[in-house]
Amino acid sequence: MAVVSRGFRGRPGDTHHKLPPGQYETTDFPVLSAGPTPRVDRDAWEFTIRTETGARHSWDWAQFMALPSQTPTVDLHCVTKWSKFATEWQGVSLDVLLEDVETAAEFALVHSYGGYTTNLPLEDLLDGKAWIAYRYDGEELAPEHGGPARLLVPHLYLWKSAKWVRGIHLLLEDEPGFWESAGYHDYGDPWREQRYQGD
Ligand SMILES: Nc1nc2c(c(=O)[nH]1)N[C@H]1C(S)=C(S)[C@@H](COP(=O)(O)O)O[C@H]1N2
Ligand SMILES: [Mo]
């Protein structure tokens, strides 16, 4: 017997994907950037985690490429209401990057080349929930989608997935990022439709 639940979309031969409230499915990959696309040379690229004590852990591109990577397939949910199912990425898990980082911090403020920032609880970067992604759909990540590398944190609205990521500051107190300062929700869970402050 076929069981069809409201909110579930099936595709032949595919697993079932679920659409969060208020979202629609698209098969395009829209580009949403608050400013111009920064061109970041892999030779000059560096990714730094800074803790609340000021301790820094940095990787240049070669060191970053030498880390073990994963190939997550995930659904994306943008606050502008499009969702894209089963996107295929390659990236380094934040579990790997945070492994040797000693911290008492509970919050993270993610920084991008170009100045964009976004905040989230540190625990949302852990336990297989987030990656620094550098390949998409079998290709190098295109500059407009955040290449050389972007944060990928698919369980939250896509504005949390900072493109052109350059570092993460670990903080004892939560600090709002770019969209969070402009009225968007501090956490941004698509399943609870946390689009704006007060949702
Ligand atoms: N650095 C940076 N990262 C960013 C943004 C941005 O403007 N600058 N936009 C965010 C928003 S609102 C969304 S929906 C996604 C869009 O990612 P895409 O352009 O790859 O679809 O990137 C997020 N990451
Ligand atoms: Mo967005």
Automatic annotation (TrEMBL):
It comes from the Bacteria. SUPFAM superfamilies: Oxidoreductase molybdopterin-binding domain (SSF56524). InterPro entries: OxRdtase_Mopterin-bd_dom (IPR000572), OxRdtase_Mopterin-bd_sf (IPR036374). Residues 1-35 are annotated as: Disordered. Residues 35-179 form the Oxidoreductase molybdopterin-binding domain. This is Sulfite oxidase-like oxidoreductase. It comes from Streptomyces vastus.
